Every structure is written in C-alpha cells, then in structure tokens.
C-alpha cells in the first residue's frame, strides 16, 4: 500500500506548478563567470603605437610584399592597386626599381584570381619601357608559362602580357636567349600546331577540330593577331650603321677583347641548344624559322582559313605578315657547325 501511494505522488509532481518567490534571483550555474569588472586600460603584446604614419617608401615595400606573398585574393588585388596608383603619379614612386617590381610580380600572371591578374596588367602598363627592357628575359619565362596554362582565362591574360612586352621591348624580346625559338614553340603549342610529322601526341590531336565556338573563335583570332605582331618584330628590317675606316682595320688586325672570340663557331663547346640561343639578326631568325616552324605554321594557317569568320580573317592577316617577312629569305647552303659535329 505504501509503494502505490509513493508512485501516485510522483505522478502528481508533473502537474504541480512551481511557486516563485518575488525578489529572489535564480541560482547561478556552477560554471558561471563574473564579467562585470571594469578596466582602465587594455594592454596588447607585440604592438607599437606611433603618432607618425609610415613613409611612402615603407608603404610601397609593404604592399609589394603583400602583392607577391599574401594568401588573400582581395589583399593581393588591393596591394597591386596601391602600387599602380604610386607608379601612375606624375613623379612615380618606386624605391626598389622596375627590375625588382617585375621579379616580384610577374609570377602573378598565372594567379588563380581574375581580379588580381587584371590589376597586374594595369600595373605593367605604368612601368617605363626603357627600364623594362633589361628584365625582358625573366618576364618572358612567366608569360610563356601563362600562355600554355590549362585555364583559358589565364592564357588570355598572359597573351595580353605578351602584347605589352611587344609594345615596350619588341627588339629585346626576339633577341634575348630563348626569346625567338621558345616563344614560337609556345605559340604553336597554345594553338595546337604540331611541330613534328608524327601522328602521335596531343599536338596532332589538337589539329583535328570542328568549327570553334564563338568565344573560342575570338580567342584563336586574338592568338593569331599576337603571333603576327611577334613575327613582325622578328622579321623587321634592320638599320645597319656604316662602318668607319678605323672600325674596318680594327676588325682585321686588332686582337679580340672577349675571352672566347670564336664562340659563335661552336667548334669545341658542348652541343648547341637551338631553343635557348640568341638570334640577334633578321637572317638568323628567318633561317631557324624556315627550318623548324614554317611548315607547321603554314598548315595551321590553311586549316584556320577554312573555318572562316573572325578566325579566317586573322589567319589571312597572319599569312600576309609571314609572306612579307620571308620574302627576301634565301635558304642557306652552308653546312651548319652542329651538322659537322654530328658527322664527327
């Protein structure tokens, strides 16, 4: 009987209303922390406050570091925007020099963020051309890498950087080590023009394509226009200065000052690397172009002309540039020194 009454009372507890006493606060939890204290000062470690703002030189270097190393896309873009504003002034602020700026920022050509790449292109246009020329070789490596990127957007922005280089330093671009052959190889790889007659490999497969989509057609037309601009720079007629009588006799009898005056003959050196060589004159560039690139470029032009539209017109323009540039070319019958070494 006692146990049944106990169970009945326990059930009635669920329906009983708790009586609250007026003026009495609720009991505090066991893990309660009192935050009602007040402090007159807040001390933060590793922080220095100054009444003077950092100077322009410090801000420029700081933003240059942020632009090249920050993990935040927005921070990189804002840093590039600041640098662009400083370089665009009537009296440009550049305490580190153009070469250092290019060394730090040119790798951003392949940045994954489109706003960063777009801001970088704006910054490049503000750099003085005469100071860009000595750094062409270093910049060209990253431009070529961006042109063959799998992302179409990155490849397109790298092509814009190539246009910028051709505008400010065309002669230095085509004459620097690797500037002629490696850049032509990059153009052919970007457009899928095979450089060998083999039927194997991705380059040959890229040639078999149907009609391009409108966006792809615009990109292809732009690529061919930049290639035409590059060939114009390489096949440009050179102005030869008249040699004086003193220079003539010096060339005949004066001892050469260079350490290896006959290095260009490559008689006792390692095997010549055509890709990394310098081609300082129009004739040398025509010779290597005829040897390695003329046939695949002509095939690519013929195929593109069949597509018609904007790409067909770009192909016709490229064909005209090529015909004009190679018009005065004569195939050399001399045996190359590399061929002599192969015979040995």
Q: Gist?
A:
The chain has helices at 2-12, 56-69, 73-87, 98-105, 114-124, 129-132, 136-147, 152-175, 181-191, 202-207, 214-234, 245-253, 282-292, 294-307, 309-325, 337-343. It has 344 residues and is an all-alpha fold. The longest helix is centred in the middle third of the chain and has 24 residues, at 152-175.
Could you please describe the fold and organization of this structure?
- This protein is an all-alpha fold and 344 residues long.
- Among the domains are: 57-176, Leucine-rich Repeat Variant (Alpha Horseshoe); 177-195 and 212-238 and 274-343, no CATH class.
- 57% of the residues lie in helices and 0% in strands.
- It has 16 helices and no strands.
- Helix 11 (214-234) packs parallel to helix 15.
- The model is unreliable at 197-210 (pLDDT under 50).
Low-pLDDT runs: 197-210
Separation, N- and C-terminal Cα atoms: 120 Å
Q: Name the CATH superfamily assignment of the domain at 57-176.
A: Leucine-rich Repeat Variant
**Which fold does the CATH topology of the domain at 57-176 refer to?**
Leucine-rich Repeat Variant
Question: What general outline do the C-alpha atoms trace?
Answer: elongated
Order of helices and strands: HHHHHHHHHHHHHHHH
Query: Which radius of gyration do the C-alpha atoms yield?
Result: 34 Å
- The helix content, as a percent range, equals 55-70%
Tell me the structural class: mainly alpha
The number of distinct helices, counting runs of at least 4 residues, comes to 16
- What's the main sheet like? none
Total beta strand runs: 0
As a percent range, the share of strand residues is under 5%
**Assembly form of the protein:** single chain
**CATH architecture classification name of the domain at 57-176:** Alpha Horseshoe
InterPro entries: ARM-type_fold, Ipi1_N
Subunit structure: Component of the RIX1 complex.
Domain Pre-rRNA-processing protein Ipi1 N-terminal: 131-231
Subcellular location: Nucleus
């Amino acid at each position: 009987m006692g146990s049944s009454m106990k169970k009945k009372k326990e059930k009635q507890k669920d329906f009983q209303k708790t009586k609250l006493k007026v003026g009495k606060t609720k009991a505090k939890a066991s893990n309660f922390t009192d935050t009602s204290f007040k402090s007159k000062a807040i001390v933060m470690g590793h922080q220095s406050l100054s009444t003077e703002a950092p100077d322009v030189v410090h801000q420029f270097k700081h933003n240059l570091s942020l632009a090249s190393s920050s993990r935040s896309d927005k921070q990189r873009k804002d840093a590039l925007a600041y640098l662009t504003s400083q370089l665009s002034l009537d009296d440009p602020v550049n305490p580190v020099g153009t070469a250092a700026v290019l060394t730090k920022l040119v790798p951003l050509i392949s940045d994954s963020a489109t706003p960063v790449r777009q801001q970088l292109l704006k910054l490049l246009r503000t750099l003085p051309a005469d100071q860009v020329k000595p750094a062409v070789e270093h910049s060209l490596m990253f431009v070529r890498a961006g042109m063959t990127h799998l992302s179409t957007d990155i490849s397109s922005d790298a092509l814009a950087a190539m246009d910028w280089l051709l505008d400010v330093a065309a002669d230095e671009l085509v004459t620097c080590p690797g500037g002629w052959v490696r850049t032509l190889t990059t153009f052919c790889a970007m457009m899928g023009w095979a450089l060998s007659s083999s039927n194997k490999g991705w380059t040959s497969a890229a040639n078999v394509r149907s009609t391009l989509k409108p966006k792809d057609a615009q990109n292809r037309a732009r690529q061919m226009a930049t290639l035409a601009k590059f060939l114009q720079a390489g096949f440009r007629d050179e102005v030869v200065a008249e040699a004086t009588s003193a220079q003539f006799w010096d060339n005949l009898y004066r001892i050469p000052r260079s350490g290896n005056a006959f290095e260009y003959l490559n008689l006792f050196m390692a095997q010549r690397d055509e890709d990394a060589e310098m081609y300082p004159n129009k004739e040398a560039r025509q010779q290597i172009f005829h040897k390695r690139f003329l046939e695949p470029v002509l095939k690519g032009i013929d195929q593109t002309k069949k597509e018609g539209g904007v790409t067909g017109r770009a192909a016709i323009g490229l064909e005209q540039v090529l015909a004009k540039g190679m018009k005065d070319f004569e195939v050399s019958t001399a045996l190359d020194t590399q061929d002599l070494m192969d015979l040995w």
